[in-house]
Amino acid sequence: MVNRSSLLSLLVASTAITNAAVAQDAAVQLNEISVEAARPATVNAAGAGLGGANVSGGDGNSAATSGGGGGPSGVSGYVARVSPTATKTNTPLIETPQSVSVVTREQLNDRNVQDLNQALSYVPGVSANVFGFDPRNDAFYVRGFAEYYDGVYRDGLRQPGVGLIIPRTEPYGYEALTILRGPASGLYGLGSPGGIVDITSKRPVFVPFGEVWFQGGNFDRYQGNFDVGGPVEGSNGTMAYRLTGIVRQSDTFLPGAVDDRQMIAPSFTWRPDSDTSFTLLSEYLHTNLPGTAFFYNEPGFKVTRLYGGDAGFNKTSQQQYRIGYAFEHKFSPDLIFRQNFRYQDAAVSFPFTAFTGVTGLTAQRYAGLYKDKIKSAVVDTQLEGHFWTGPVAHTVIGGVDYAHYDYDRRYGLNFNVPDLNLAGVTDFSNFRYRTFIARPPLTSGSGQSQDQIGVYLQEQAKWDRFVLTLTGRHDWVFQSTSSFTNLVPGTPRDQNDGAFTGRVGLNYLLTPAFVPYASYATTFTPQVGVDSNGRPFKPATGDQIEAGVKVAIPNTNITGSFAGFDIVQTSILRQDPTNIANQVATGSVESKGFEAEMTASFAPGTNLTLAYTHLDVRFLRQTSLVTGQPIDGNSLSGIPGNTFTAFATYLFPPGSILSGLQVGGGVRFAGTSYADDENTVRNPTVTLFDAVLAYDFAALDPKYKGFRAQINAQNIFDRDYTNCQAGFCYRGAPATVIGSLIYRW
C-alpha cells in the first residue's frame, strides 16, 4: 500500500499551511451563511423571465426545516452555498470535509431532466451510463461503487431497494439533489463507500405561484406537468400547500416498449411561529415500463439490434406511494430539535423474455415473471446545539435513527416459449413481434425483513481558521431471510450485524475564497445470506482518505473544488468459484483518483458547470468467475477511467435584439474502460452532446409574462454507442428531442 501511504502524506500536508501564509491574512474570516426557519418573506415571483428559474425562488426558501433533510440553501442559479447532507447541519459547503455537489432546480429545469440518471449525468465522480439505456431503474455508480440499492436518500432518509424493486423518483418533484461522495456511514449508517445521493422534495412556500408544462417529443412522447401552491387562505400566513404532478404517455426506441408515468405529490406546511415547522410530504407514483432493455449479444462483445423484449410479455408495472413529515422546533437559536419520518410502499410486476441463443434464423428464448414488494419505515430524530468554550465555537448534533423494511418476492419461469423466427428480417431496429406467452405460476420466492438502529454524534469545532469535524456512529442491524421452492417454505435464517463507523475531517480557512481540507471516513454494509458452510457473510467494510481544496470567490456566484481520494472495500460478495451454487464474501477493491468541479451563475439565466474525474478502480484480491483464476490488479469493468462534462446556458440581456432568448448546451465525454473483469477487451470512448433553446415571450410584450417555449435535445448527433460491463453489452439511447410550452404565474 505504498501509493496509499503516499497519498495520506499528501492529504495531511495539504492542510499544514505555513505560518507565513497565516500572517498575511490573519484578520480574514470566512463569511458565515445562516439559514433561518422563519417564514419566507421574499420569494421571486414565478415567470419573472429568469430562464429556467425555480418556481420556488431558487433560494432554499421552500425548505421546511433548516437542517438535516431540509435541502440546500443559499442558492443562486446553478450554485448552492449550503447543504445539510454532509453534516446534517447548515454548514457552508466550503467548510465540509468531503466532496459535495448540488444540482439545483434551475439546472434540472434547463436540462428538462427526465430521470435520476439524467440528473446526475453532469456530476463529477458519477458513472450514469454503465448499463446503457434502461428506463426500468435508476442504476448508477459513484466513485466506482453501485449506489442504487442503499445510496439513494429522500429528504435525508434512506430509500431502500432490494432485488427488482427499487423505488423510483420523479425529477419534476425534486427541489434539488445533493451528492455526497465518499463514505457516509458516520451519519447515515449502512451504505456504499461511494457516497449517497440525497433528493430534496418540493415543499410549500408562503407566496402564491403556479406552473404548467406541456411537452411532446420523438418516440411519440406526450407529457403534462403542473406545480401549484401558496399560503392557505384564512390561515394568517401560518399554513401553505403545494401540489405537484405529471402525466406521461410515451414509446421508446426499444421496439414495442413504453415509458408511461403518473405522479401526484401533495404537501402541506404549518408554521405557527418562526420557531416551529411541520411539513407533511406525500406522493403516489405509477409507471409502465419494458420488462427488458437488453439486446442480443453475439460472441466477442458484439451487441446486435435484436431486442429481447416480446410485446406480448414485456410490460413492467410499478406502483408506489410514500407519506411522511419533517418537523423542527427551536427551543432557542442554540438548541434545535428535528424529526424526519417516511413510510413507503412499492410493488412491481416484472414480466420479461430473454434469449438463450440464436441458431441459424431461429432465436431460442425463455420467459420469467417476478413480483416484488417492499414496505419501509424510516425515522431520524436529531438534537442540534451551539455553544462556546473559550475561543472555540461548537456545533454538536446527536441523533437516533431507525429503519425497517419487509421485502417479498414471488416468481416463476417458463422455458416453453416458442422460438423466434428471424427469416426475412432485414431491419432489426424496427423488428417488432408479439407472441402469446403463458404466465408462469409463481411457485418460488423469498422474503426478508431488516431492522436497523443507529446512534450518532457529531462535533464541529471552529477555532480561528480551523474547522474540525468528528463524527461517530454505532449501528445494529437485524435481518431474517426465508425462501420457498414449489410452494414449500424453507427455514428462516437470522443474521445480526453491528459496527462502529466514523469520520474525522479538518478544514483550514486560508482565505474566504480558498479552503484546503482532509478527512478519513469508514463505512460498512451488511450482506444477506450464508456461505456453503452455513456461516453468515461478514459485512463489507471500507474506508476512505480524501483531501482537497474548495473555492468560493467573494462577491460572485462562482464556486469550485478539487478532491483526491483513496477508498478500499473488503469482503465483497461474489459467486463462490469452487461452488457456483453459493456465494462467498471475499477479496477487496480499491478506488482512487481525483475530481475537479466548477459551478457558476454569472447572471439570471446564464450559468456554467464543469466537471472532470479521473478514476482507477481495481481488484486488490479477487478470483475470476469466468476463468477461476486470480484477477488481482485488474480494473473493474464498465467504469470509465476519465470523464469530462460541461453544461452552460446564456440568456440574452434585456435591451438586446435577442432579448428573451436563452441558448445552451453540454458535452459528456466518457473515456475507455474494460468490457470484462478479465480485462481482455476495452470499451471505446464516447462523446455525447446536448442542447437547449428557450424563449421567454415577455420579451415580445409584457402581457405574455410567464410564457416560455423550450426545446431540449440529448445526443444531438445521434451517436450510436454501447457499453459493456462484466462481459455483457448494453446499447445507449439515440437522439432524443423534447419540446415544452411552459406557463408560470
Automatic annotation (TrEMBL):
Bilayer topology: Multi-pass membrane protein
Checking CDD domains in the record gives: ligand_gated_channel
Q: Which UniProt keywords apply?
A: Cell outer membrane, Ion transport, Iron, Iron transport, Membrane, Receptor, Signal, TonB box, Transmembrane, Transmembrane beta strand, Transport
Q: Indicate the secretion signal residues.
A: 1-23
**Could you tell me which residue ranges the TonB-dependent receptor plug domain spans?**
93-196
Source domain of life is Bacteria
Tell me a GO cellular component: cell outer membrane
Establish whether keyword Iron is in the entry.
yes
Q: Which GO terms describe its molecular function?
A: siderophore uptake transmembrane transporter activity; signaling receptor activity
Q: What is this protein called?
A: Ferrichrome-iron receptor
State the organism of origin.
Answer: Methylobacterium phyllosphaerae
